[in-house]
């Protein structure tokens, strides 16, 4: 049951997809689609979800910020598809050999499509399989249909409904026409875990959310759970596309200490440890595979430190490094990191698994003892910077804590990964749910170890619910000064900012065309100067600049290094792509860049003609100072960029009237120049009084000299006076006692540069700072100033302490009261409702503790009993302030159904957890009774004598199911009229069809012709009452039975005699008796004799027995719904 779709190989056009399918109706020979057309990828193609390392940096798509941040960048086209069709798999772009760029799209309905990347014209479309229905699974994370969910992925589909009918196929298709490649698809269900032979792949219980990853000839797929339902185990599968078979199956939870059960309905009994990563792909640097896992059930690590090479087999709540045998594709555990407090993370549903692993560019992000960094984050809000070559094991750090390069602690949950930008010093980007995007810049400790400090924050916040995407960074041809940070959002659609923060830590936004909110965890895809994304309504958008630009000019223009106090001139060459009547004006975004207007053409410019003009970057009169408002421009040394726009009047219609390009360069200060970053260091809140919780918090800031002369430190002082701008603030000099500098109440460091010390040109000092709760609960604040001969700068240090959050949960009752909930007893009863009626109750979650409470897990119901404001009320990451409550409204609205149904009970549930570790997972069990309309002859108590039996195909066997027709009423026919007539004539069964016909009989209709209501076959309105069904098109009849003469039994709807509620074990089918349920062997089949082909109508135990008995086999067995084997 899952889907991630799509992978294009470098030299062959190949689409890979895993498809979940119901085995009992699988066409013979169907396997996974694969494409094998020759493909010459261009630099502007994006044939997978991000880069292989998941660094989220792209330098090859011709995305120029001067164009994006101009009036010429807009919506080029929009395409919509089927109702309720959504796109969780991101669009991919590629260019077939000798052709034009295409967009590949895959949907939750299992449709795959190719479109013209420039025009949006649909080229090919195919539905690979019928998708699973969300209602079959019971998990509401993905609504309506569960088909292709992840980019480069597995596909989920269904024939027969029901969770355990689901299996996975690995597909490969030709991208040229979307047809299957020979030898595909491949069935992957039943493959045994190589590291625990008790566990094997059961497709119906798991979800493939992460995108696929290809290394060599092996394609890897990772699997997690459906809302932690069922007996699932986190799994990585590998399929060799040359051998066309599964070559590796690695179980995240394995060994004797892992949970195990053969009861697939037992939630969590497989050990969990799901890999989902909010859709982010597995990461690889060639021969290693990295991923993060979610909550686990049980663990080998129970307090005793263990190295990453210790071979831990229970890898829930972990970052995992698997070695890839590049010859065979087989995976083996090399290293892992499991936080020292992972048990608490499990209890509070604060799993790693909501964020993937990013491998950073090792040429930039390295330092003493660290050749390659990786980053992960998750629901607990911490950013873990880890040595990719030594992940850290368990409790290997000082005092039994974590052995990580750096931990950036926040209280802000992240669903998705971290983006990175390796130029201009190196930056990383993180977007917590409901918060701004935070930008951290690479720095180094005194020993040279990498250490990041906060450098910028967007003014715009992400949606306050799960779904913001992964920050993704592009540059124009890899040039500094051209970086854009892109982000999708479930409310705001798509956003963009210049990726490098301003000196005041602000992020400059780029205005983009408004689109609808996107589905959760999307991120944009890039083509040749174009950007693609989909919204929550299933529309695909293409943003870009018109291809009919009037000019082709030098871009970007790089001025190189320019010293503050001097100037430099560059020449820009332009060629007209159409006849231009007049060059009207040239403007720049920064007035320090001055255009020589005298050289511009004064008249028309013919097509093909060229002209040139000069631009001077004038920094002569710029004040060299770090003080605020030193001049109107940005005077901080470093890389700068600005757009230049040429406006024209064109002689030919259809061309844009402006042309944007980029100006870049590096400002250099010969004098010393002081910089302190960030402006604010927020240490967050410390929770006191909870065993195991830290009582201190650490952050770092940087004191740097951006100038080319020595900088002398003159002094440090701090104040808590908030009115510092009036000049009356009382500062206290920073003092050093026994090597510890006092930075104000609660804040200290051991690493301040000494007074009168010197920072050389370009040198910086990283200042690790400790926040210690010195007093009772409350807020802590210190304004620290640094004085130097290169200017004055400061930083705000802030933090808080409080007691833990405490949650109380109650449910409302139909009498208007509140009922308290516990882990073992939490119910909600709607009583009895009729179709058309609606009853509403609510769940109330209150915080009676001392700090903010966060909802860490929320799986609201859908269906007849559903959350009124699905995804809004009590959503994951929702924060509840102290002494406040949040409510989730639940409504019970029975759907209309046939009259005379016996009362039946509807059940559903809402699963909740919070970061109150004493709370635990609460499941609110909800019930409601549906009482349908009663018509026809009645018992004295008002209930109907004739009950609804169902919808049947009449005359399917060559004769009517009910052979007697008491009347034909072409004006007033209803079911009650027919029932009354049949009762009067003494018949047991009545039925109506073709709106006006009535039939009676005494023989039970054969279940061979029965159709469940979900098939919607009986839809003809009775001619006398359009609220009732009287049969359906094609000869379907609505049948009722006299309950005083007949009662439904096990045989009513199933001629084999099994119970209607689900599959049952057949204990005897002559000449065979049931022996038990056995696992297949690892090297050979348990029954290696004949394997009779499946019956055309689908396999049964009786059919298999008849085939095996004919050949006098002693043993027979059935598996995978449709297979028969013997020995």
What key phrases describe this protein's structure?
82 strands, six-stranded antiparallel sheet, 39% strand, six-stranded mixed sheet, single chain, 3% helix, globular, 1127 residues, disordered N terminus, mainly beta
Write up what this structure looks like:
The chain has 5 helices and 82 strands. It has 1127 residues and is mainly β. A hairpin with a 7-residue loop joins strand 7 and strand 8 (102-106). The longest helix is centred in the C-terminal third of the chain and has 10 residues, at 975-984.
Give the strand order, joined by hyphens, for the main sheet. Answer: 50-52-59-57-56-55
Mean pLDDT over the residues: 85
The span between the termini is 32 Å
Largest sheet: 6 strands, antiparallel
Name the beta content range: 35-45%
Share of helical residues: under 10%
The tally of beta strands, per DSSP, is 82
Number of helices: 5
C-alpha-based Rg, rounded? 34 Å
Could you name the ranges where pLDDT drops below 50 across 5 or more consecutive residues?
Answer: 1-14, 19-40, 152-162, 626-633, 1056-1062
- 3D shape: globular
User: Structural class, please?
Assistant: mainly beta
Signal peptide: 1-24
Organism: Recurvomyces mirabilis
GO cellular component, one term: plasma membrane
Subcellular location: Membrane
In short:
The chain has 1127 residues and is mainly beta. It has 5 helices and 82 strands.
Topology:
Blueprint: E1 4-5, E2 12-13, E3 15-22, E4 37-38, E5 57-58, H1 65-68, E6 74-79, E7 92-94, E8 102-106, E9 111-116, E10 122-127, E11 132-133, H2 134-137, E12 145-146, E13 150-151, E14 153-156, E15 166-173, E16 186-187, E17 206-207, E18 213-215, E19 218-225, E20 235-240, E21 245-251, E22 283-284, E23 288-292, E24 319-324, E25 331-338, H3 342-347, E26 357-359, E27 373-377, E28 383-387, E29 393-394, E30 406-408, E31 419-421, E32 427-430, E33 436-444, E34 450-461, E35 472-474, E36 484-489, E37 493-498, E38 509-510, E39 525-526, E40 531-534, E41 540-544, E42 551-553, E43 557-563, E44 567-576, E45 580-588, E46 593-595, E47 610-618, E48 638-650, E49 658-668, E50 674-677, E51 680-688, E52 696-705, E53 711-719, E54 732-733, E55 735-737, E56 740-742, E57 747-749, E58 758-759, E59 764-772, E60 778-788, E61 791-803, E62 807-812, E63 818-820, E64 827-833, E65 839-847, E66 853-859, E67 865-867, E68 879-880, E69 884-892, E70 904-914, E71 922-930, E72 946-953, H4 975-984, E73 989-993, E74 997-1001, E75 1010-1011, E76 1021-1022, ...
Parallel strand pairs: 1-13, 3-14, 5-35, 25-29, 43-49, 51-61, 64-71
Antiparallel strand pairs: 2-4, 3-15, 6-41, 7-8, 8-9, 9-10, 11-12, 15-16, 17-19, 18-19, 19-20, 20-21, 22-23, 23-24, 24-25, 26-27, 27-28, 28-30, 31-32, 32-33, 33-34, 35-36, 36-37, 37-38, 39-40, 40-41, 42-44, 44-47, 45-48, 46-47, 48-49, 50-52, 52-59, 53-54, 53-58, 53-60, 55-56, 56-57, 57-59, 60-61, ...
């Amino acid at each position: 049951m899952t889907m991630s779709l799509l992978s294009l190989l470098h030299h062959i056009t190949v689409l890979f997809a895993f498809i979940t399918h119901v085995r009992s109706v699988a066409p013979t020979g169907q396997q996974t689609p694969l494409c094998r057309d020759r493909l010459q990828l261009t630099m502007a193609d994006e044939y997978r979800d991000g880069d292989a390392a998941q660094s989220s940096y792209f330098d090859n798509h011709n995305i120029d910020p001067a164009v994006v941040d101009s009036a010429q960048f807009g919506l080029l086209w929009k395409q919509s598809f089927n109702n309720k069709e959504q796109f969780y798999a991101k669009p991919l772009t590629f260019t077939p050999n000798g052709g034009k760029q295409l967009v590949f799209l895959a949907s939750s309905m299992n449709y795959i499509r190719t479109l013209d990347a420039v025009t949006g014209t649909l080229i090919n479309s195919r539905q690979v399989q019928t998708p699973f229905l969300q209602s079959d699974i019971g998990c509401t994370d993905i609504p309506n249909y569960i088909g292709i969910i992840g980019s480069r992925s597995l596909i989920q589909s269904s024939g027969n409904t029901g969770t355990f009918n689901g299996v996975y196929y690995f597909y490969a298709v030709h991208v040229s026409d979307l047809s299957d490649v020979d030898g595909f698809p491949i069935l992957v269900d039943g493959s045994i875990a190589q590291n625990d032979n008790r566990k094997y792949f059961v497709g119906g219980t798991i979800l493939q959310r992460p995108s696929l990853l290809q290394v060599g000839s092996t394609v890897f797929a990772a699997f997690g759970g459906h809302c932690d339902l069922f007996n699932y185990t986190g799994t990585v599968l590998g399929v060799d596309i040359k051998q066309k078979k599964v070559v590796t199956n690695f179980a995240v939870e394995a060994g004797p200490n892992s949970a195990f059960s053969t009861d697939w309905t037992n939630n969590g009994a497989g050990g969990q440890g799901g890999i989902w990563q909010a859709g982010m792909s597995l990461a690889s640097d060639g021969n290693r595979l990295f991923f993060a896992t979610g909550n686990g059930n049980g663990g080998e690590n129970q307090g005793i430190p263990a190295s990453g090479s210790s071979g831990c087999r229970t890898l829930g709540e972990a970052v995992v490094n698997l070695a890839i045998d590049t010859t065979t594709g087989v995976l083996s555990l090399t290293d892992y990191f499991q936080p020292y407090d992972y048990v608490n993370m499990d209890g509070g549903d604060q799993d790693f698994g909501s964020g993937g692993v990013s491998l950073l560019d090792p040429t930039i992000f390295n330092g003493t003892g660290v050749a390659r960094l990786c980053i992960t984050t998750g629901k607990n809000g911490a950013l873990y910077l880890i040595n990719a070559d030594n992940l850290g094991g368990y409790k290997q750090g000082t005092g039994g804590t974590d052995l990580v390069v750096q931990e950036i602690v926040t209280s802000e949950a992240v669903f998705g990964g971290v983006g990175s930008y390796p130029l201009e010093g190196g930056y990383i980007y993180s977007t917590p749910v409901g918060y701004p995007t935070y930008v951290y810049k690479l720095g180094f400790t005194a020993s040279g170890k990498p250490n990041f400090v906060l450098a910028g924050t967007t003014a715009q916040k992400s949606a306050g619910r799960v779904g913001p995407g992964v920050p993704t960074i592009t540059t124009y041809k890899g040039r500094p000064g051209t970086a854009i940070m892109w982000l999708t959002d479930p409310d705001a659609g798509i956003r963009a900012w210049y990726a490098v923060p301003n000196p005041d830590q602000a992020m400059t936004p780029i205005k983009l065309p408004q689109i609808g909110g996107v589905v959760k965890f999307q991120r944009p895809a890039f083509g040749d100067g174009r950007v693609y994304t989909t919204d929550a309504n299933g529309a695909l958008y293409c943003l870009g600049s018109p291809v009919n630009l009037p000019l082709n000019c030098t871009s970007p223009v790089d001025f190189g290094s320019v010293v503050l106090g001097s100037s430099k001139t560059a020449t820009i060459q332009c060629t007209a792509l159409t006849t231009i009547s007049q060059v009207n004006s040239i403007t720049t975004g920064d007035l320090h860049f001055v255009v020589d207007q005298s050289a511009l053409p004064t008249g028309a410019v013919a097509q093909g003609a060229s002209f040139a003009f000069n631009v001077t970057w004038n920094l002569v009169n710029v004040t060299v100072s770090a003080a605020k408002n030193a001049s109107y421009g940005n005077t901080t040394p470093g890389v700068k960029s600005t757009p230049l726009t040429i406006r024209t009047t064109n002689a030919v219609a259809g061309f844009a009237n402006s042309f944007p390009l980029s100006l870049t360069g590096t400002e250099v200060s010969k004098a010393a120049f002081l910089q302190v970053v960030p402006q604010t260091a927020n240490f967050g809140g410390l929770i006191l009084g909870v065993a195991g919780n830290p009582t201190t918090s650490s952050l770092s800031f940087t004191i740097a000299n951006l100038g080319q002369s020595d900088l002398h430190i003159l002094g440090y002082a701090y104040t808590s006076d908030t009115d510092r701008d009036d000049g009356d603030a009382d500062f206290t000099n920073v003092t050093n006692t026994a090597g510890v500098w006092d930075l104000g109440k609660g804040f200290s460091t051991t690493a301040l540069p000494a007074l009168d010390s010197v920072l050389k040109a370009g040198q910086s000092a990283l200042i690790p700072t400790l926040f210690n709760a010195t007093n009772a609960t409350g807020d802590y604040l210190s304004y620290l100033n640094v004085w130097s001969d290169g200017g004055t700068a400061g930083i705000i240090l802030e933090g808080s302490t409080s007691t833990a959050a405490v949650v109380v949960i109650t449910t409302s009752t139909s009498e208007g009261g509140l009922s308290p909930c516990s882990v073992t007893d939490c119910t909600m009863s709607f009583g009895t409702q009729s179709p058309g009626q609606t009853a509403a109750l609510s769940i109330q979650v209150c915080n009676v503790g001392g700090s903010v409470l966060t909802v860490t897990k929320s799986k609201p119901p859908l269906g007849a009993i559903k959350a009124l404001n699905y995804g809004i009320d009590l959503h994951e990451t929702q924060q509840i302030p102290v002494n406040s409550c949040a409510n989730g409204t639940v409504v019970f609205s029975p759907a209309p159904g046939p009259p005379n149904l016996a009362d039946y009970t509807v059940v559903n549930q809402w699963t909740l957890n919070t970061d109150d570790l004493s709370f635990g997972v609460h499941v609110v069990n909800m019930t409601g009774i549906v009482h349908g309309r009663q018509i026809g002859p009645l018992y004295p108590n008002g209930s109907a004598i004739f009950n609804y039996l169902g919808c049947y195909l009449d005359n399917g066997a060559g004769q009517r199911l009910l052979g007697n027709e008491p009347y034909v009423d072409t004006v007033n026919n209803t079911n009650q009229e027919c029932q009354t007539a049949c009762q009067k004539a003494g018949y047991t069964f009545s039925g109506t069809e073709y709106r006006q016909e009535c039939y009676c009989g005494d023989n039970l209709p054969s279940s061979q012709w029965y159709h469940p209501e979900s098939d919607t076959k009986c839809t003809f309105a009775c001619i006398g009452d359009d609220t009732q069904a009287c049969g359906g098109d094609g000869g379907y009849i609505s049948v009722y039975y006299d309950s005083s003469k007949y009662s439904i039994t096990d045989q009513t709807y199933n001629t084999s005699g099994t119970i209607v509620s689900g599959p049952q074990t057949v204990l005897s089918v002559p000449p065979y008796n049931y022996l038990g349920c056995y696992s297949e062997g690892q090297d050979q089949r348990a029954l290696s004799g004949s394997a009779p082909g499946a019956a055309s109508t689908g396999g049964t135990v009786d059919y298999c027995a008849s085939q095996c008995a004919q050949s006098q086999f002693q043993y027979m067995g059935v598996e995978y719904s449709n297979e028969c084997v013997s020995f």
